[in-house]
Amino acid sequence: MSNETSQTSPTPDEEPAGKPSYYITTPIYYVNAKPHLGTAYSTIVCDTQARFRRMDGCDVKFLTGLDEHGQKVADSAAQHGMTPQQWVDSMVPDFKDLWRELEISNDDFIRTTQPRHVRSVQHFWEVMRDRGYIYKGRYEGWYCVPEETYFTPTDVRHAEVNRDRPEDQPLCPDCGRPLSRVSEDSWFFRLSAFQQPLLDFYDAHPDFIQPQIRYNEVRSFVEGGLKDLSVTRTSFDWGIPLPFDERHVTYVWFDALINYLTAVGYGDPTDEGAREFARRWPAQTHVVGKDIIRFHCVIWPAMLMAAGLEVPEHVLAHGFLLVRGADGKGEKMSKSRGNAIAPRQVIDLLGVEGYRYYFMTDVVHGADGAISFERMAQVYNSDLANSWGNLVSRALNMAAKYFDGRSPRRATDYAVRESPLSQAADGIYDRYAAAMRAFDYAAGAREAMRLVEAANLYIEQTAPWALAKDPARADDLRFTIWGLLEAIRIAATLLWPIMPSASAEVMRRLGLPDVPGDDLRGACAWGQFEGGEPVTKGEALFPRLDDEAVAKAGE
Ligand code: ME8
Fold first, then answer.
1. How far, in Å, is the centroid of ligand 1 from the Cα of 36?
2. d(CA 25, CA 316)
3. What is the pLDDT of residues 35-67, one digit of tens each?
């Protein structure tokens, strides 16, 4: 990815320790459903990238938050006998608690009801009016409340193909639920004016939308023509009022997308706000699910162009998590189908570290991923219990046993001594960092796992227990165990963004600092481990899962 090269370079006094800014966001989730495996997936994808970038020397801003306005939320609040504000406030802890448990390291948490966001959206409206990209009219058409999306008559005709429904009840072409008729005064955004500028932008930035399949999809959608978009509502009031026409509240998507600007100081009149905005905008990456790419890749860039602002560098669209149905095929996980897996069930089975490892390495980014408890247990047992956990436990046990509870010291000639482990570590930073920057976490973790496998093999080949019996081979034993601990240090470093607690624990057991540094390339260089510190054997990091635990998890 070309993130670093295309950034505007801030002046040194704006840049903490000269670090480049890396601004990454999750979608802001609707508050009326509790966080689930899908929303957690997007959030952990961002967290892993944020952690990797911090370790790799970036000044990271990682934003997540909640989308709290709109008709859906207003309806849910009424159903629960609460005001919309009471209702949204009651839902916030569910998100914050789960994110804390899943070790989400967000630097900011935005709620669209916050005053800073109201100010930012109202500022955006003023800019739209001043630049002539909005006009007042009347909207007649269809609206899907669960999806908070307008549909044209052409879209709706598709829905009417559903024979189970009477012709007079159009259904949403996306989710199949009944559409509402909307007939109200509205302000419109001149989206149609941006067809050619968008196509030109896509041409000039072929890596704006990833993966490629989504790029093609978005491009052909825009080639098909764009209509102006109704961007205010008057039939309810749970939204941000227009500063110059208070009867209208902002359409929830128009409001929600602006969150990415708000969090970096847009609309903040102070110098600090202006500095933050100059430093952080444009964002490097918006991570979204494939369901919301049109909003992020068509409407959002058009809004930014209309406001005279830069477009973010990348939108990364991932697929859906699917569960294997009775026929063995993947089907979308949903509460209504009764096949949804709760994050709690996965945490109980795999622990938080196993949870993160499984989703970040076994679900191919960009594609839909079928998940199952059996597969989770298979990945966990083979990679974490048998390979990684086992290596840590064997190596630390041997260090404790043969070197009196301390790690052996690095030999002075370590750099010239042959070791299959130093060979395995050679060039590892470049391969790993390229994979991580491309969000290919499976390939990133594979680099760590190759080193782990090499180390497990090295134990078999060198048989330290035999060396320990021969006093003439004491130096070989020392060099062997030191090499194993050094390989463990590097593997733990590489796995840190995916499994932060487990890596911190491994570092502690090695007698090393348990907070990651910010020079990943340096940390990956062979031979950093000096040794001579007390080591801790500790409990098994990843106890093996048996069939009974897997069967119980599915109940
Ligand atoms: O769309 N698999 O919020 P939302 C993977 N508020 N990811 C999934 C998923 C699944 N089965 N289900 C949901 C909204 N997601 C708007 C966003 S942004 C300015 C406003 C993830 O609560 C995925 O990232 O419906 C998807 O795009 C997002 O949750 C939708 O969250």
1. 10
2. 10
3. 999 999 999 999 999 999 999 999 999 999 999
> Is the CB–ligand 1 distance for residue 187 below 6 Å?
no
Q: Is residue 479 exposed (0-12), middle (13-18) or buried (19+ Cβ within 10 Å)?
A: buried
Domain limits, the chain? 3-133+190-318, 373-547
Question: Topology of 3-133+190-318 in CATH?
Answer: Rossmann fold (3.40.50)
Look up residue 294 and give its two tokens: 């049109």
Q: Is the pLDDT of residue 346 over 90?
A: yes
Torsion of Cα atoms, 286 then 289 then 291 then 296, to 10°: 0
The finding on whether 261 has its CB within 6 A of some atom of ligand 1 is no
Answer yes or no: are the C-beta atoms of 141 and 152 closer than 8 Å.
yes
Give the model's pLDDT for residue 8. 39
Question: What distance in angstroms lies between residue 88's CA and the mean position of ligand 1's atoms?
Answer: 17
Candidate from 205-214, 339-348, 399-408, 504-513 with smallest mean pLDDT = 339-348
CATH code that applies to domain 373-547: 1.10.730.10
pLDDT (mean) for 18-25: 97
Ligand 1 atom showing the smallest separation from residue 321 Cα: 2
Q: Ligand 1 pocket, 371 CB below 6 A?
A: no
